[in-house]
Here is the input.
Amino acid sequence: LCSLMAGEAFEPVDAATCRMCLLGASHLSHPTNFWAPAAIQRTEVWERARQLGNPKFVVPPLQAFKLAHAMLLAECGLKDKALRYVEAVCDAVKPAKGGQGYSMRLTAELEMFDH
Here is the structure.
């Protein structure tokens, strides 16, 4: 939260300058397991709070984590919930012209769903 208060922006985890990609998770200290569901959900809550003031607000780096979370939900048999996540990610990425601002991998994975 201190990073948010200081005006730190979320960045893609693979960016050389990335200091924050999920709330309450350190990709520097724990590079293989930092993206726990709780960290994704904390960041989603922050994104949703910002959307109350600006409905078009999106945290681009979060969308890849949401898609990974959707895949985890699907593997656990929660297909309806997973589908809602995928649709939300598609809706967030779609307005960006050609997926601009999003990783090529994310846009390629979303093309499978053809939304």
